[in-house]
Amino acid sequence: MESKYRILFVCLGNICRSPAAEGILRRMAEKRGLDRFITIDSAGTYAGHSGDMPDRRMQNAAYARGYLLTHRARQVRPEDFDRFDRIVAMDDNNYHNLYRLAPSRQASDKICRMSDFFREHPDWTYVPDPYYEGHEGFELVLNMLEDGCRTMLDQVALMFATGGEAQKNP
Ligand code: 4NP
Q1: Where do the Phosphotyrosine protein phosphatase I domain residues begin and end (predicted)?
Q2: What is the pLDDT of residues 65-108, one digit of tens each?
Q3: CATH number for the domain harbouring residue 52
Q4: Which of 6, 49, 52, 73 has its CA 20 to 30 A from that of 130?
Q5: Is 15 a pocket residue for ligand 1 (Cβ < 6 Å)?
């Protein structure tokens, strides 16, 4: 079986930003024929929404762009640092909380920011929390996530085109 690149998206509640990123990356990967090369999941640093479907406002905004969000919220677990190659934080809070949770230096090396992958949002260093925002907040988040996911997929395509098992953590 082919080795897969395993990506975990992390936000606070796991009902808005990270399940949207998961749904977007999965759909984009399917469209580009790259889905067999990646495993995608999402989680939250906060457990309060565990078991919930994505926020209805995010489900609707994502669906309008062709993304079906079916994830059930869960909290980040220590074993996620073994199960994934990249752990992608949406904002500074998520990033620092993940650092606190990381069981080793090797584990913390897997943490990065979604904004590291932005090409069309160069002035942003985080994905803003849309929970208390209106419709425009959700649209902005989706624009950012599409931007970052496109870059991620370009990197995955390159990684597997060059047989890059050894470059899993570039
Ligand atoms: P998310 O958004 O971190 O993108 O899933 C939020 C969801 C819930 C809450 C905050 C942000 N909350 O306070 O319950």
Answers
A1: 5-155
A2: 999 999 999 999 999 999 999 999 999 999 999 999 999 999 99
A3: 3.40.50.2300
A4: 6
A5: yes
